[in-house]
Amino acid sequence: MLKAGVLGAGHLGKIHLRLLNQSEKYELVGFYDPDAINGKKVADEFGYTYFDNINTLIEAVDVVDIVTPTLSHFECAEKAMEKGKHVFIEKPITNTLDEAKALLGFERKYGVIGQVGHVERFNPAFMAVREKISEPMFIETHRLAEFNPRGTDVPVVLDLMIHDIDVILSIVNSPVKQVNASGVSVISKSPDIANARIEFENGCVANLTASRISLKNMRKSRFFQKDAYISVDFLEKKVEVVKMKDAPEQPGDFDMILQNAEGEKKQIYFENPDIEANNAILDELETFADAINGNTTPIVSLKQGTQALEVALMIIESFKK
User: Fold this and answer.
1) Which residues form the Gfo/Idh/MocA-like oxidoreductase C-terminal domain (predicted)?
2) Lower CB count within 10 Å: N or C terminus of the chain?
3) 137-148: b or e for each residue (b if 16 or more CB lie within 10 Å)?
4) Is 16 among the domain residues?
5) Residue 90: what pLDDT?
6) Which residue segment(s) compose the domain that 73 sits in?
7) What single string gives the DSSP state of each residue in 148-161?
8) Lowest-confidence range among 74-78, 84-88, 108-112, 254-258?
9) Order of strands, edge to edge, in the sheet holding 26-32?
10) Phi, psi at residue 277, to the nearest 5°?
């Protein structure tokens, strides 16, 4: 079992503590939080070991799980990696692109492995259709959330939209050609609502919308590709797969047939992939353990986390134009 320590005991940090504690792939050594009052409170309530010194915790573990505010990700990861510790870093990887690129260098220099917490890659609905999404040419995403002060220290692009950016980059095998975006600050000092259009060199276009001041929560993505439409509801964990194929010469009474202007007939049919219930955060942590033990590339590598951050920052920069 890998010895693990958590940095940060806020809302998400407590979830990570609980899951690492129950995982058969980790031994939870303890956690550090700069707020000693909160740290002792969490320790008393849940029985986890509280370290009042970050360096002492890092020395005691194999894996450092960084669940702190984004602004401190780089400093925490640097401390851990230079001690030869593997790092799991909540999204976004860092606050700046230079910091993210520096971590890539540390990963090579110190021979450690890092993973970024883009948890939607482990969403059971997405996993059920991942292999069916092939060369999409138009993608539309909506990620809307009710207002929560937690997370408003960063623009909505880094808070919410980056989930969809990462998913899209994992599917579209093409460099980004152009980004156009707009963002509006309503309550926070940084944009609370954003829309972005990402054009890829292969012709694919992705239209992303994110809001953290909506009246209801929504996390939906739609993928359009040749002869197929795939919808993923990340929140409700549901999928729709609508496909087309050449129509039979003698259609059945209930077959759905479309005919285009050239007279070609297509049959519409539906697929219902099995969705296996899971705990996405536990899965991302345990597959990270597998990557460490097998010395393989994690499902969401530091490089991929850096690419998602780079596109997110391109979107934010586009707000200024």
Assistant:
1) 150-320
2) C
3) eebbbbbbbeee
4) yes
5) 97
6) 2-117+280-298
7) -STTTTS-HIIIII
8) 254-258
9) 50-51, 26-32, 2-7, 63-66, 86-90, 114-117
10) -60, 140
